[in-house]
Here is the input.
Amino acid sequence: VTENEDPGYQIGPPIISPTDDVLVYRVLIEEEGGSSYSNILKQKIGSSGKTLVTYGKWLDLFPSFTPNGKYLLFSSGRSQANPTLWRISVEGGAGITRITGTLAEDYSPCVSPNGEIISYASNLPRAEEPQIWTIGMNGTLPTQLREGETPQISPDGKKILFVRRDRLSKKRQIWMMNVDGTSETQLTQNNEYDAIDPRWSPDGNWIIYSSDEGYDSHKRRNFDIWLMTSDGSRKTQLTTNGSRDDSPCWDRTGKYVYLRSNRGGAWNIWRFEPILP
Here is the structure.
């Protein structure tokens, strides 16, 4: 989907519009002297042309579409030392609105299907683990739920997928809970490999994710794309590659899966049509 040939050009995870064939992702630029910044880019699927949505030497990360496809939420430290959540039009330009503004590090926003609630991860000062919170789109009623990261609200708005690191094995596993934080359920469980980057299919029946459960040709654990049902059963490996495949997501139709991979030596965004078991 992208045509990057520079190994130092660090393309972030793909985020697909829920209403159009539009892709956004962040690009990290490292400058001489060790400093770095990232901007969010927009690209029409099928075109190599790219447009800046955010600009400036900030760390703009974790973009996420609103359900109507008109706005992006993202994490940025543009107004204070710690990153907070912001909203901007997909067309870019003026009108950036700050959503959160505490001393915590807020990142990985996800908007509910009705557009009213934002779920996000937050590193609070002196907290031992990242926490998952929800907040109103207008910045009201922040609510702490449970320990975890990378929350993803289900298409029906009732469940949240998230990742939590096991305190003993230190391996990351996929969990699910109700949108109010109740009835948490662990979907993957092991002491040997990570399961990360979970995303719902548009119909809510499947969960696609990245895991190093499998091995490459040198018998080393390697991140590939995996699939399971929404109850954690019928795990299926979808990609087998010596490079790293991660950050999968579905398009709005459920036909294609997009992912990030460094196959070929440079980071790019790829897509394939999964065969469901």
Summary: The first strand starts at residue 10 and ends at 11. The chain has a mean pLDDT of 95. Residues 120 and 162 are 10 Å apart (CA to CA).
